[in-house]
Amino acid sequence: MKKILGMGNALVDIMIPLESDNILELLALPKGSMQLVDMERSNVVLAALKDYQKSLSAGGSAANTIHGLAMLGAQTGYLGVVGEDELGGFFVRDLIQAGVDPHMIHSRQETGRAVALVTPDSERTFATFLGAAIELAAVHLEPRILNDKLQMTNDQSSIFKGYSYFHIEGYLVQNHELIRRAVELAQENGLIVSLDMASYNVVEANKDFLLSIINDYVDIVFANEDEARALTGLEPEEALLKLSEMVDIAVVKTGSSGSLVKSGSDIFTIGIIEVTPVDTTGAGDLYASGFLYGHSNGMPIQKCGELGSVLAGNVIEFIGSKMPAERWEKIRAEVKHI
Fold first, then answer.
1. How far is residue 162's CA from residue 185's CA, in Å, rounded to a whole number?
2. CA angle 57, 317, 301 (to 5 degrees)
3. Domains contained in the chain, CATH given
4. Residue 6: helix, strand or coil by DSSP?
5. Helix 61-72 crosses helix 283-296 at what angle (to 10 degrees)?
6. Strands 3-7 and 101-107
7. Rg for the chain (alpha carbons), in Å?
8. Is the pLDDT at 310 greater than 90, yes or no?
9. pLDDT of 237 over the 90 cut
10. What gap in Å lies between CA 143 and CA 153, rounded to an integer?
């Protein structure tokens, strides 16, 4: 079975359902965006919402995707940095319980957290404090690292060896040195490189770098409508064509309309499954889980997209990016039929 390695910002999601959009305006958080904030700003946001219902889950885009793959039965690993604190322990335990092999680095900084504000239309807005996650650096990729001291060991074997796929979240692209070195090493080790673009505002701020990396190193790219537009300046159908000039497989997710996939000269229109949406958090991440699971098992592209839609549709019926065990049993049964 092919193994899939993910790399991303290791964050604990703090999910907070809102009754209206008003609080977003008061907190100066653009709806649907991912805003990077410092610890003080994060605490201000949490203080303003202290009386709201909250739920915790181990998150970060790539971690969500890898977790979903593991729950489908794929062999997976994850690389990231967490703090030596309660949230860091929570994050690592969540990976292990799902069957993910954690390649974690531990820092004395606090574990990162993403405050996710969910409006009644199921849209989510993030105020993200990266904390320890931001310490992940290019130097950590090739040599093995001692988990507790951020120091190199004598084991110079690549973390990429033994894996067939490397999945990166776009939120990391602000660290150009890290991303470039990661995709270089993945390519050197023969891995298929998959990139999920993340948030439109991150894409806008790193457009030239993203275009260079995608064109030179990425094999599979995932983007939603806003991200595709931010990168190409084009609407979904045209953006798909533009992206497909740079990669083997381009995916543009079109929300309630489903997704568009182009592989070679073939274009596939993927529908959605009927669900009752509660929270869209993790929908794109879990779409990538289903798609990559299908691709790594040699399934036709159309089926890969259908698997993505099944996972994305199921996760939006729950608050947060995680689903209960009984729902995963249902999904695995559906996957067998697909």
1. 13
2. 95
3. 3-10+59-111+130-337 (3.40.1190.20)
4. strand
5. 50
6. unpaired
7. 19
8. yes
9. yes
10. 7
